[in-house]
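In response to the reviewer comment on reproducibility (Comment 2.3), we provide here a single inverse folding case reported in full, input and output, so that an independent group could reproduce the run without further information from us. The structure tokens appear first.
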């Protein structure tokens, strides 16, 4: 199901839809969505496929909610930035031991909040559940979930509640988000996760809604509104809902300078376009100041502030990036979007 697109974007949007559908078929996703905002207006809504490969699965609709997997980090990021704004976290350069002294001092003595939110902390957990250090904090980059876990726990301690509850009070309720939530119960609107095409689909549900599990489900339109909130620097319908400084913290480059110039730049978890980086998820033609977040099942939120564009791409298949050379496909999509609106 597609919404009619007016010129001058018709041909370019058609090409993007074809690209999205090709990846869907190539990787075995049962569902795909492309949703585009330009100047805070919907340019395109494209919904295709079903909630799973099962015969009687529900067709994807505007109210279908996708598990956004690791893209939930953008929500955690906003909560961390709120904690910084509230001075409950003093600065990004505070050592994590200041807040969690029970951690192994020998391993984390040089790890700061900045390292944890930019994937440069150097920590990981082995198969036995023991923490170890891969590299000196701030010198290298590695995507590891332990940083997410630590920051999630820290916010819970600071506010006495999960960060989803903090966001509900401070953001969601104020801008009317009703199709965004950490789900623990089955609902026909929730899109299943595909592991392998010939295996039963996964529900993606969690056991709690405190943000400690990967059970955040969002409709494409509310994912786009989330991006628009950031693009507008916290303003919605002319009202400043989130302080502009909070958004700026999340979406500007926050990592230290790496010795390896190919490593990606990050805000608070977001991939941010400073100087184009070889290992970044953002293509070289993406305008400076743009930013993106994505999850393992393929949900992608791309924000191009200089072009006033927000793009949502949704799939429901694990490792639905496009192929083994996944960075190429991620970069190619963002380049195609940039070319269309430049």
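Designed residues, in position order:
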């Amino acid at each position: 199901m597609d919404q009619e697109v007016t010129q001058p974007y018709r041909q370019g949007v058609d090409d993007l839809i074809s690209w999205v559908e090709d990846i869907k078929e190539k990787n075995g996703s049962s569902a795909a969505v492309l949703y585009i905002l330009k100047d805070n207006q919907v340019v395109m809504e494209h919904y295709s496929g079903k909630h799973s490969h099962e015969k009687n699965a529900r067709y994807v609709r505007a109210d279908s909610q996708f598990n956004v997997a690791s893209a939930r980090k953008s929500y955690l990021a906003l909560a961390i930035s709120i904690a910084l704004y509230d001075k409950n976290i003093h600065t990004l350069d505070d050592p994590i031991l200041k807040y969690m002294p029970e951690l192994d001092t020998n391993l984390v003595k040089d790890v700061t909040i900045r390292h944890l939110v930019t994937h440069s902390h150097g920590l990981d957990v082995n198969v036995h559940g023991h923490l170890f250090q891969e590299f000196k904090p701030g010198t290298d980059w590695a995507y590891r979930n332990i940083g997410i876990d630590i920051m999630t726990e820290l916010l819970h301690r600071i506010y006495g509640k999960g960060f989803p509850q903090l966001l509900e009070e401070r953001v969601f309720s104020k801008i009317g988000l009703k199709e965004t939530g950490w789900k623990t119960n089955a609902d026909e609107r929730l899109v299943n996760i595909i592991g392998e095409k010939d295996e039963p689909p996964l529900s993606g549900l969690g056991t709690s809604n405190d943000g400690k599990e990967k059970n955040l489900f969002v409709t494409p339109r509310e994912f786009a509104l989330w991006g628009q909130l950031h693009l507008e620097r916290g303003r919605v319908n002319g009202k400043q809902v989130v302080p502009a400084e909070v958004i700026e913290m999340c979406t500007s480059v926050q990592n230290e300078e790496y010795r390896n110039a190919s490593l990606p730049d990050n805000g608070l978890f977001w991939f941010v376009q400073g100087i184009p980086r070889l290992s970044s998820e953002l293509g070289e033609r993406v305008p400076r100041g743009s930013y993106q977040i994505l999850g393992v099942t393929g949900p992608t939120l791309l924000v191009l502030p200089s072009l006033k564009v927000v793009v949502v791409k949704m799939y429901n298949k694990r490792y639905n990036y496009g192929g083994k050379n996944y960075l190429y496909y991620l970069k190619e999509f963002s380049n195609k979007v940039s070319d269309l609106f430049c």
